[in-house]
Amino acid sequence: MEKKVIGLLVVSCLLAGCRCRQGSVPAEPVQPVAAEAAFVPVFSAEPIPAAVETRMRGVSYPENAGISLSDLRYLRLSYVDFEGHEQVGELVCNKAIADDLVAIFRGLYEARYPIRSIRLIDDFGGDDEASMAADNTSCFNYRKKTGMRELSKHALGLAVDINPFENPYVRPSRVRPSGASAFADRARDFPHKIDEEDLCYQLFRAHGFSWGGTWRSVQDYQHFEK
Ligand SMILES: [Zn+2]
Predict the structure, then answer these.
(1) Is this prediction's pTM over 0.90?
(2) How far apart are CA 157 and CA 75, in angstroms?
(3) pLDDT tens-digit profile of 83-140?
(4) Whole-angstrom distance, CA of residue 17 vs CA of residue 13
């Protein structure tokens, strides 16, 4: 009986990598059991990498005289999605606001502020409507203002749209993205609504951005620009 117990102990020691049989030989420090791979948040800004340029050319970045690629930065930003999971998103912005955005998104992440997704508009073929319909947060897209000839601040990478489905662009005649009309009524309370009490609003304002939610003729609740 006793022999069997000792035998079991030896076997279990061997299985566990136990060093009890090494006598007086100094044991090496035992490696800690590998913890569950911890999520390491990332908040980086760098010149547009070649692979990202390939994705952008002819999509968000057509041939143009307005902005050079060297004025843009590629950001990787950790965020917490609507299901509470940590994710890493991609965003392209003007180098003039790269530090602001890194600080703002770090603040949002630390507060576990929910963001649906942060993907380049190129993943949506440069189609702003498609990106908004997917509730995607984005920044740079070389395009004109909605329904106008003038370039949008997005064309310079100086505007960011956050959770656009719950925070649509509202004209008296039309709500964009289509399907988001229910979120045009800002007297109503619902999750992910940006208003002046909202952390996202407060962080962007603290960094000198203006908010489209207080524009007069149209309201663009998703939109912050500098
Ligand atoms: Zn916008």
Answers:
(1) no
(2) 12
(3) 999 999 999 999 999 999 999 999 999 999 999 999 999 999 999 999 999 999 999 9
(4) 6
Residue 118 C-alpha to ligand 1 middle, in angstroms? 14
Amino acid at 131: S
In the chain, which ranges are E strands? 43-47, 72-80, 86-94, 117-118, 136-137, 159-161, 169-170, 175-176, 210-211, 219-220, 223-225
**Residue 152 alpha carbon to ligand 1 centre in Å:** 8
Span from the CA of 175 to the centroid of ligand 1 (angstroms): 13
CA of 156 to the centre of ligand 1 (A): 12
Residue with tokens 């990478």: 157
Comparing CA positions, the residue from 156, 94, 118, 114 lying closest to residue 42 is: 118
Q: Which two tokens stand for residue 18?
A: 């136990």
Q: What is the residue extent of each domain of the chain?
A: 43-225
Let me know: does 98 contact 128? Beta carbons within 8 Å: no
How many CB atoms are closer than 10 A to CB 3?
A: 7
Parallel, antiparallel or unpaired: strands 117-118 and 136-137: parallel
Could you read off the pLDDT of 126-165 as tens digits, one per residue?
A: 999 999 999 999 999 998 776 777 889 999 999 999 999 9
Q: 């004109």: which residue's tokens?
A: 144
Phi-psi region of 140 (alpha: psi -120 to 50; beta: other; left: phi over 0): beta
Q: What is the DSSP letter of 35?
A: P
Sheet containing 86-94, strands listed edge to edge, beginning at the edge strand earlier in sequence: 43-47, 72-80, 86-94
